[in-house]
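User: Last request for today: this protein with coenzyme A, please.
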Amino acid sequence: MTRFLSIYSDLPDEDKETLRVIDRSCFIGEPHVFHRQDLIVMVADEEGSIMGFLSVTTKGFVERTGVLPKFRGRGLQREMIRCAMKRFNKLRTYTRRDTDGRISAWNFVECGFKYVRKSDEFFYLSWKRARRRRKKIKGTV
Ligand SMILES: CC(C)(COP(=O)(O)OP(=O)(O)OC[C@H]1O[C@@H](n2cnc3c(N)ncnc32)[C@H](O)[C@@H]1OP(=O)(O)O)[C@@H](O)C(=O)NCCC(=O)NCCS
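Assistant: Here's the final one, the structure of the complex with coenzyme A:
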């Protein structure tokens, strides 16, 4: 399956509407409010139809991530997480402890996130880019 990943900041209002529709197919409860400053990673098929999204606040908090039911089980969430990781040095998130929340938490862990806390309801995870070791230059004056 061909897929295209895109990153947006300052998403236009009409695209936000599309995002809201997809969000409704992934989550029950209150509709999520996407803010203008959020960084949005989207994965689309060759016709440009969106299959999934991930939103990150300017402070590196992964706020919302969903893949449309018919495209699940193909590793799309992990691809979007890795895409966001290229843009930030630190990220954090939390997931519910229900079935999809667990799948989501595993995907974050597979991408390098660590559990920082577990409550009865949520998993809290974070990731920090490893600092590169400076090479010691031997023998120079
Ligand atoms: C959680 C979610 C984002 C995972 O997205 P995804 O791209 O399907 O994730 P993956 O492809 O890695 O699938 C993870 C596992 O789920 C299973 N799976 C989930 N849905 C599946 C489906 N419809 N068909 C087959 N396998 C499925 C697979 O076993 C897969 O494990 P594997 O990679 O070891 O085979 C997606 O299920 C979702 O949008 N859920 C609703 C919203 C939500 O709860 N988001 C998380 C908020 S905390």
